[in-house]
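WP5 quarterly update. Target: NlpC/P60 domain-containing protein. Source organism: Methylobacterium thuringiense. Length: 286 aa.
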Amino acid sequence: MTSRDPRLTPARPDLADSRLRGLVEAERFVDGQPRRLAAPSAPLRRTPRSEAGLDTEAIMGEPVTFYDVVDGFAFVQLGLDGYVGYVPEGALGPADPAPTHRVTALRSFLYPEPNMKRPNGGYLSLGASVTAHECEGDFLRIGPGAYLFAAHAEDVGHRRPDFCGTAERLAGTPYLWGGRTSLGLDCSGLVQLSLLMAGIACPRDTDMQEAALGEALPPGLDGLLRGDLVFWKGHVGLMLDADRLIHANGHHMTVAVEPLREAVARIAEKSFGAVTSIRRLPRIAA
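Structure tokens (predicted):
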């Protein structure tokens, strides 16, 4: 059997996606069922245990393929980037209706009525998608007893091409390994969220991003442009201009902006080693 990336392969020794029949070994093969993430966000873990480490997060409205339940955890593959793992079973909902709006505020509270003075029932993060059933005053009704401030959302088809601007809005967000929301982000989560808001498909982890995104530039730190991606083995940052890098990092434990050359020197000495590549994405028309 061909070796496959376990992060992206919906297969266990006892069960696998029927599309993998003949490609992987498993006791049985099943057809995945379409679902959507119905919770504001949900942790995706490698094993069905709440104490297992956080691999990534799913955000409301994202499509999910469901395969199995183990001890209250659903074995799934995320439609956004293909990541495989376990999310709480209760975080899943039906695939339909499809989302109509996407959250553009960093965070926006949900209310039981179209009234900002009512106690909120949680929040949605930047990039979450919802189905708006109707507009009541300044609010969108997105479900029974669930209202979202309308100005904090836009049509799901709208794109924000300045992905660096999105990243800059997230400056100061705490660092969270596996995080993909505006409450906490890791380095590749920051890049992925920023690009997805611009309508650019983006893998989840740094090695995948380095292999898939843009074209490699010649070695060196000169002549860089806003939007260039700087990669290390296990880390990534985004250039805001020729000199400044924005990245979620464990040194600052936040999304921070700093001079590229200072970051390169520190990272070479203390963590990820030398820069492995710098990649340039196609320019996006505003």
